[in-house]
């Protein structure tokens, strides 16, 4: 396939992704235990009536969780793409830097030491724990003569994650109050958060996406090999450093507002790579609406499959993402290490 043909295909996929994203937003605002018509959605957004129950539900519940879904889904998809580029492994996960494990330990600290019991109260603890864990992994992984090597970074992340997971299990097995509060946050979801939480993480996520897009060309060169990229005059260390910073901001922000949701950072970039190729400019750009759509649709499905209750979006994605990922792996039959 020629370069112009690949570009045309990527543009078409981007257009489809944007269309699916817009449809996902409409479904997220209108579908649930209390269906709301499109006309009522428009009325609520542009002329809210405090006495109208549909308007109240839409503005206080569905709008916040839709915005959270957009931010978290886009952030996780972009973070997964960056991690796969940095490690040259299309199955790398944002959790590779210990993000989820660090956030979990920090949330447990908030529960047991400070007494916080609401998801909105976990926000800065989760963000801080995710950031600290990622910084520790990046620092250790960059030491020594082979510092920054993708394999070393992956092994360091796995070791830190294992240690933090052990701490998490120890606390949960000895503090049943913490277990009761923690288990709701740990499955990942978009409920019980407000627009105040969105305001706190919007800037970090936006900055993280901007840094990731800036690194796109560098990730393309790293895919050729560090030595080749250096020979072409590219500063590999700078791209790796910026990529790690972007991952910290994106994963920290997404985990803080939506919990440790898995598979988005794996499935979205891996699926797009099959469709549009390995150009990170397109993988990152298309991944933004695609990741947001996946999380929003998972949330919508979770609202309707167990009425009058709900299934958290993180659980829905786990059920859908696992077989999709296995299928993709079997089709490609290769993982770059």
TrEMBL record:
Pfam families: FecCD. It is a multi-pass membrane protein. The keyword Disulfide bond does not apply. Its main location: membrane. InterPro entries: ABC_BtuC-like, ABC_transptr_permease_BtuC. CDD domains: TM_ABC_iron-siderophores_like. The chain crosses the membrane at residues 63-83, 95-116, 122-141, 153-178, 198-216, 242-268, 280-301, 313-330. Keywords: Cell membrane, Membrane, Transmembrane, Transmembrane helix, Transport. It is found in: Cell membrane. Belongs to the binding-protein-dependent transport system permease family. FecCD subfamily. This is Iron chelate uptake ABC transporter family permease subunit. It comes from Microbacterium pumilum.
């Amino acid at each position: 396939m020629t370069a112009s043909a690949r570009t045309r295909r990527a543009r078409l996929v981007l257009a489809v992704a944007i269309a699916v994203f817009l449809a996902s937003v409409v479904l997220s605002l209108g579908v649930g235990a209390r269906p709301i018509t499109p006309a009522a959605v428009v009325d609520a957004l542009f002329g809210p009536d405090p006495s109208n129950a549909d308007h109240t539900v839409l503005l206080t519940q569905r709008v916040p969780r839709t915005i959270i879904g957009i931010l978290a889904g886009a952030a996780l998809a972009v973070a997964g793409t960056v991690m796969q580029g940095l490690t040259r492994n299309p199955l790398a996960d944002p959790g590779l830097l210990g993000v989820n494990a660090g956030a979990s330990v920090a949330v447990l600290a908030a529960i047991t030491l400070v007494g916080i019991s609401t998801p909105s109260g976990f926000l800065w603890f989760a963000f801080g724990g995710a950031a600290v864990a990622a910084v520790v992994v990046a620092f250790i992984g960059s030491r020594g003569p082979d510092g920054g090597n993708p394999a070393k970074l992956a092994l360091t992340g796995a070791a830190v994650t294992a240690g933090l997971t052990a701490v998490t299990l120890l606390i949960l097995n000895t503090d049943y109050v913490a277990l009761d509060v923690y288990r709701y946050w740990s499955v990942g979801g978009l409920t019980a958060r407000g627009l105040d939480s969105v305001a706190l993480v919007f800037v970090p996520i936006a900055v993280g996406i901007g840094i990731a897009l800036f690194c796109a060309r560098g990730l393309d060169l790293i895919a050729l090999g560090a030595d080749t990229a250096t020979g072409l005059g590219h500063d590999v260390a700078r791209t790796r450093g910026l990529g790690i910073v972007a991952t910290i901001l994106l994963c920290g922000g997404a985990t803080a507002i939506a919990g440790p949701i898995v598979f988005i950072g794996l499935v979205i970039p891996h699926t797009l790579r099959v469709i549009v190729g390995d150009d990170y400019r397109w993988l990152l750009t298309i991944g933004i609406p695609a990741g947001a759509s996946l999380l929003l649709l998972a949330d919508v499905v979770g609202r309707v499959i167990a009425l009058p209750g709900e299934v958290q979006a993180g659980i829905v994605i786990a059920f859908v993402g696992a077989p999709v990922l296995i299928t993709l792996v079997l089709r490609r039959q290769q993982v770059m290490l």
